[in-house]
């Protein structure tokens, strides 16, 4: 009886705290839209095997044609990582000298080990701030590659002083990118101004951690129409989002206009993606098409099937 009452109170508290934001959403500017269209291409490139398993100094490319601006910029791989951890965390560090940026990109779900990380949904203390709890699978996906990635990132920053640091990812990659950004910004000698572009990220944090990451600023968290992935793990489990939310209302496979991206504040805001579920706090996982389309088909480089590796 005590457990049941505790569960009911947890769910009730989550739904009460999820009242619609009284702040009127705003549209984005043409310059912002241009930036979003650009940085998402680095998240798209993270799905292409030659990039997350490429040799240093080789150029980033997308055989499916969904990162033309990255290819035009001549961005090159500084460090790549994949298939070396139980979670199969994969991605790359790239140098974009045209735009004076260092990019840390994480691949979204691809292997069985990725999916196992996706569905853990238990808490772990990441040691980032008092009372902060992160989703275990997402945090471990970062923690298992952190030492090598941070070491290489420090080398890249030392060799390219003044370059902007941008951290990107889509889906699972966005979840890992969010926690990596929080960690990299907050560590001693870290990069507090690093920008985060998280496309279709699931929830990664409890309220304390979400507030901590939100307060770091430079967070661009995107959702698309009724994509169910950002609605997981559920509010009743105690998870909330980093703010603000950039909610794309354009249909699938369509050019996104400025008026079709609404900026919404709050760890929970029913006026955006969270409010699209048919039943509150119950994602419709059958409605998955919107998950692929974030200014473009982000995961188009993903091969068919799920490899058992």
From TrEMBL:
All copies of domain Mono-/di-acylglycerol lipase N-terminal, residue ranges: 5-76
Catalytic activity: feruloyl-polysaccharide + H2O = ferulate + polysaccharide
Domain Fungal lipase-type: 104-235
Cross-referenced SUPFAM superfamilies: alpha/beta-Hydrolases
Signal peptide boundaries: 1-18
Top enzyme category: hydrolase
One Pfam family from the record: Lipase3_N
Annotated keywords: Hydrolase, Serine esterase, Signal
EC number: 3.1.1.73
InterPro entries hit by this protein: AB_hydrolase_fold (IPR029058), AB_hydrolase_lip/est (IPR051299), Fungal_lipase-type (IPR002921), Mono/diacylglycerol_lipase_N (IPR005592)
Family of this protein: Belongs to the AB hydrolase superfamily. FaeA family.
Protein name: feruloyl esterase
Species for this entry: Aspergillus pseudoustus
């Amino acid at each position: 009886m005590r457990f049941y009452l505790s569960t009911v109170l947890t769910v009730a508290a989550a739904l009460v705290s999820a009242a619609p934001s009284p702040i009127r959403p705003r549209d984005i500017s043409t310059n912002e839209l241009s930036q979003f269209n650009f940085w998402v291409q680095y998240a798209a490139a993270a799905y292409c095997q030659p990039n997350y398993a490429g040799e240093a100094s080789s150029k980033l490319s997308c055989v499916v044609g969904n990162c033309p601006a990255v290819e035009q910029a001549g961005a090159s791989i500084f460090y790549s990582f994949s298939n070396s951890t139980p979670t199969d965390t994969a991605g790359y560090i790239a140098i974009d000298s045209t735009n004076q940026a260092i990019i840390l990109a994480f691949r979204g779900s691809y292997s069985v080990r990725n999916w196992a990380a996706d569905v853990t949904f238990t808490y772990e203390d990441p040691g980032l701030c008092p009372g902060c709890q992160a989703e275990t699978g997402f945090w471990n996906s970062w923690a298992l590659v952190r030492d090598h990635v941070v070491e290489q990132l420090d080398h890249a920053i030392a060799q390219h002083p003044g370059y902007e640091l941008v951290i990107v990812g889509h889906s699972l990659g966005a979840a890992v990118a969010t926690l990596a950004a929080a960690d990299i910004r907050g560590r001693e000698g870290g990069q507090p101004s690093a920008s985060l572009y998280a496309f279709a990220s699931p929830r990664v944090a409890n309220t304390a951690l979400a507030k901590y990451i939100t307060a770091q600023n430079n967070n661009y968290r995107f959702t698309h129409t009724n994509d169910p992935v950002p609605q997981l793990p559920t509010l009743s489990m105690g998870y909330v989002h980093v703010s603000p939310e950039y909610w794309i209302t354009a249909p699938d496979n369509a050019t996104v206009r400025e008026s079709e991206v609404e900026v919404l504040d709050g760890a929970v805001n029913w006026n955006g993606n969270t409010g699209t579920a048919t039943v509150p706090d119950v994602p419709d996982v059958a409605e998955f098409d919107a998950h692929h389309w974030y200014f473009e088909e982000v995961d188009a480089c993903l091969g068919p099937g799920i490899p058992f590796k």
